[in-house]
Amino acid sequence: MSSRARTHDTSGKPARGSRRAGRMKALSRFGVHPDALAYSMTTLGAGMMNSIFSFYYVKLFLNKYKISEAAFHQSQVIYMIWNAVNDPLFGYLQDNSSVPCCSRRRLAILYGAPFYALSFLLAWFPWRAYAAGDWLSGVHLLVALCAFDGMLTFVLLSQCALFAEMSSEHHSRLKLIKYSQVASLVGSSSVLVCGLASGNMDDFPAFQAVTVLVALLACGCMLYTGLHSQSRYEARQGSKAEQEAPQGSSSSPPGLSLTSICSMTWQILTQRDFQRFVTMNFFQVFMVAFCNNFTMIFTEHLVPRDALPPLAKSLMYGAGFICPQMVVLGSQRLLRTVGYYRLILLTFYLEVGAAGVMLLLGPQHYYILALFLTTNMVLVQAAFSLFNLPLADIIDADLQSNKRRWTLQSTLLAASRPTSHLLSTALFLSALSFPLLLSLFLLTSLLFFPSICLLFF
Fold this sequence. Notes:
Elements: H1 3-29, H2 34-64, H3 69-96, H4 100-103, H5 105-121, H6 135-166, H7 170-198, H8 204-228, H9 232-237, H10 258-269, H11 272-302, H12 310-330, H13 332-337, H14 340-361, H15 366-384, H16 388-401, H17 409-415, H18 420-428, H19 434-454
């Protein structure tokens, strides 16, 4: 950054600081934590868009756009490659770029929000009237998936890094989790609203109108984060101690050589706790994607149309996205007393037990099957909502064990993001039978245990 740009940025800090102090005071009067609110607004916006996208895009392209199975799989393979590349690419960019809109978490969210919202809308508007097996529908799916995942990665990597940077205290992070879960609860209700407004996508113009409204609201929420959030490093910059602090304590990365970056990355990747977390995270993301993307399709395939009324199905789908946040909010005291380790382990026991019982009962009990699918969505998503806590602890441990003043947080976060959700997409077409579906739930749940038991052991 040039000296002129630095002068301009410094001159604007007192005004922004006074506005921030006034806003914090006004929000505190109502018992609202300003930083937690600012952080959670991105969760709200992303939750509204991600819930709708993951829940409806498969059904849209398969049932409405009539994409061929070959084009669908080809798009998923290319998307898998892009997903594997963009996580470390954006992680490296955000940790090492000298451009503020990339290196500063707040600005990355601020400038990425409009593009994130636009990429969300790509899938819902066909490029022409598609015939069955139209090649253009395959191109449409590929562009929509890659654009949406790219912007999701760029914005949410910054938000996850902001989680670790806002505070190092456990009770403060629990407050961020609490606010984030409230925001996620409100955001995930977009699936319920969208389903009721469009008749589970039967009224497609109404569905498109809802997606446009959701994109506008989500963009506004994320802009709020970009304007009002602050990391502890930015707070240091605004204090007098900043002038005495070393360069490594700033929110912008220091100038590191490629050798230093590779050395730091290798130190992170060889940590046992990080390796175990990535293993656990791989299977958990697999289950989250499997439940979110394909529950509607499995329900339509396994439960006859006349077995459950449309309203019950809409409530079932909505509950699968809303109830996880209620479970996390209701377990705040347990998080403080028991800890996230035992709570996550408990959800894995429940998933294994439920899958085993359902497999023994068989597919003819439609209401029990619907309850199982809903409960499984809730448990999987609730456990996954707590994963920021162990990851933030790993980041802190990396700082302390290697005596660093600055860490490759985005790179570490990118390395922990598996592509297992793409594996779930590749398997789902072959799993449209009851025994195989339940076997996948049971097997994946059983595979959790070695990794979660080893984590921090």
